[in-house]
């Protein structure tokens, strides 16, 4: 058994003249949470579906759990779990029956009750799928993805469309699976989700992987500087701050000054300079750079909530 | 095989929990049977009457045979269709499933003349050959009898110079309901199989259920097999309920043999395949219902389910000959009502062939994921 759950080399998918995935290569270690980000049409779904053995690649090769995706589809399916976006199933089966159904497909004998407990659906186990809310359906979907005790789990937008509480519930669940040693391939539109959960992040754009590293490394390399926002201050603050060797902007509409921090100047120095020159300011806000900035920088696009729920 | 059983169990559970599906699959056909059975027992229309005149002299009808034909014609009740005098008309009626045939025998004219002279009944009777499984045959028979009786009355004030002899080509006496019920079983096989195939495929495609199933070891052909068996089982259930209704409410007598059961299974297979073919070109569940209706609705009315094909205009009868439901209905009537195993086997053979062709094409073009 090698150390990699997924090994991709020159993976390509063409639809006629359109190159959806353009010879991408990457590896994912066992036990890792890998987040795969990309705008719509970037090749993200096509890549994942090739790894799930749902689409045939037109070039390159990929191994999932050491198995060839072109030859060992059934073996891969038996050892992986998949949560599709907006999980849906037979409407008139209960939570318990749904789990029994999918367990039967894998000829596995999972503890259905323990799975129900894991996703916190004990009080809903006899409720029909059609009567479950979106959040509960996603939790059931996670449980279904685990019926075969998979070594690798593909989670496609696991918290899309969920309210913040339900979203954090799903994150907690994913974190628990990670602690059990499962490898998780996460596709998400939520940058915060990737930042909180993933040990590494890959960004795909126009069929090419444009960045692949830990979230912090990506933010350091491609993100903006951290920014300090001084609410309702004077325009004089800008010249005062720039004397410290850092850039600042004044917004006439709001009266706010944005300070672009760097490693050489501490926030305390900025505040001390303003105070000693009797320049007033109101509230202070610190805006940290995030994966969103990285994504914007690399792809020129944003992934907002609206797009995430599409 | 265990995957098929698991999926089948899920489908049956879903069916039993879906009141709307149960209504349309089981209750609605029963309501139609009750309504049509009650209404059309008393209906009257213009009937086809096939006629063979064997009483010819130099190729021309004799006086009495011509007289009888003229009276039948002038009644305005019949569409008289004349058969060649040299063929075996009874065999022709059986093989072509004619509902009503009148044979005027050779020597009919001479016998009638002798009877009038002797004031005795004629020795040569016209023969009424009829299919009692059709709703029209008893009606036509009684009209022919009353016309002949009227001729006798005018000629003799009571002596039955002319007689009509009955010859049934079906063993038992059946009414409209016996015609209608096998047709409704065919319609149930069609609607159950097409609608479930089309709508389930469209729903599963739109909701991503196919996507999820494709990530499991369940193979596509196992799912298709499960859906086909499900459709057969639901049609059998509908068939059983309709038969019980027919027997208890309409005192029907019928035979449910291996041929009729096999025909129902093959009809479900064929319509499941047809549904899968339609589903391939449907984008969403709303479009699925519309597409299924476009196929099933005309077929329901043009395949001789509600009315005998002979009562429809000729061009519609021609269309009916290319509709698969026509063969399902005819085959079921032949096996369940006529007791004509040869004709039933012929129709079942056609449906079996079409069934395997449709399911093969449907399976081939049904995709869980676009590649």
Keywords, separated by commas or semicolons:
heterodimer; A: 310 residues; alpha/beta; Rossmann fold; Alpha-Beta Plaits; six-stranded mixed sheet; four-stranded antiparallel sheet; 12 helices; 26% strand; B: 371 residues; abc type-2 transporter like fold; 2 domains; five-stranded mixed sheet; elongated
Instruction: Detail the poorly predicted runs of chain A.
Output: 305-310
What is the alpha-carbon Rg of chain B in Å? 25 Å
Structural class of chain A: alpha/beta
What is the terminal separation of chain A in angstroms?
39 Å
* Largest sheet entry of chain A: 6 strands, mixed
Q: How would you characterize this protein structure?
A:
The complex is a heterodimer of chains A (310) and B (371). Chain A is an alpha/beta fold and 310 residues long. The longest helix of chain A is centred in the middle third of the chain and has 16 residues, at 164-179. Chain A has twelve helices and 14 strands. Chain B has two domains: 2-40 and 175-365, no CATH class; 45-168, abc type-2 transporter like fold. Chain B contains 14 helices and seven strands. Chain B has helices at residues 2-16, 19-39, 63-74, 89-95, 108-118, 136-156, 176-207, 209-214, 220-250, 258-280, 285-302, 314-320, 324-338, 341-365; strands spanning 47-53, 56-57, 60-61, 78-83, 100-104, 126-130, 164-168. Chain B has a five-stranded mixed sheet with strand order 4-1-5-6-7, sandwiched between helices. In chain B, strands 2-3 form a two-stranded antiparallel sheet. In chain B, helix 10 (258-280) packs antiparallel against helix 13 (324-338) and helix 10 packs parallel to helix 14. The radius of gyration of chain B is 25 Å and the shape is elongated. Chain A binds chain B through residues 49, 52-56, 74, 77-78, 80, 82, 84-93, 97, 101-102, 104-107, 128, 144, 154, and chain B through 2-3, 6-7, 10-11, 13-14, 17-18, 207-209, 211-218, 368-369, 371.
